[in-house]
Amino acid sequence: QVQLVESGGGLVQPGRSLRLSCSASGFTFSMYVMRWYRQTPGKERELVAHITSTGGSTNYADSVKGRFTISRDNAKNTVYLQMNGLKPEDTAVYYCNARHLIHSSFEYWGQGTQVTVSS
Q1: How far is the CA of 67 from the CAs of 25, 43, 86, 118, in angstroms?
Q2: What is the 3 state secondary structure string of 44-89?
Q3: Pseudo-torsion of CA 36, 37, 40, 46, nearest 10°?
Q4: Quick one: which of 68, 57, 89 has its CA closest to 19?
């Protein structure tokens, strides 16, 4: 059974940090490109960060560049999102996404974790 389980969300003050984790099971994690998306009510889901299957390359939305870092540990089947310098506009539900690096129809989503940045 395929599962992506996010954790690490919560309420944090502006300027502080959080680290999200997404633990994968039920598929060959090292064959999947991993992404973090976020969504706020009434808005489309936004791509935040992307990491290749080997972890050799990453990419970020302009809005988080320099503040967020995506990483992965293929031995632990886990992808992370380190979020520093959080701003109120980072408040959203954060979703983990896995897409096969060749067969893009093999795609999975986590259930999401809420991040709220507020004083």
Answers
A1: 28, 22, 8, 17
A2: CCEEEEEECCCCCCEEECCCCCCCEEEEEECCCCEEEEEECCCCHH
A3: 140
A4: 68
Rounded distance between C-alpha atoms, residue 80 and residue 40, angstroms: 20
Q: What is the residue-level pLDDT of the chain in tens, covering all 119 positions?
A: 999 999 999 999 999 999 999 999 999 999 999 999 999 999 999 999 999 999 999 999 999 999 999 999 999 999 999 999 999 999 999 999 999 999 989 999 999 999 999 99
Phi, psi of 31 (to 5 degrees): -100, 5
- The tokens for 97 are 């996404």
CA–CA distance, 49 with 35 (Å, rounded to integer)? 6
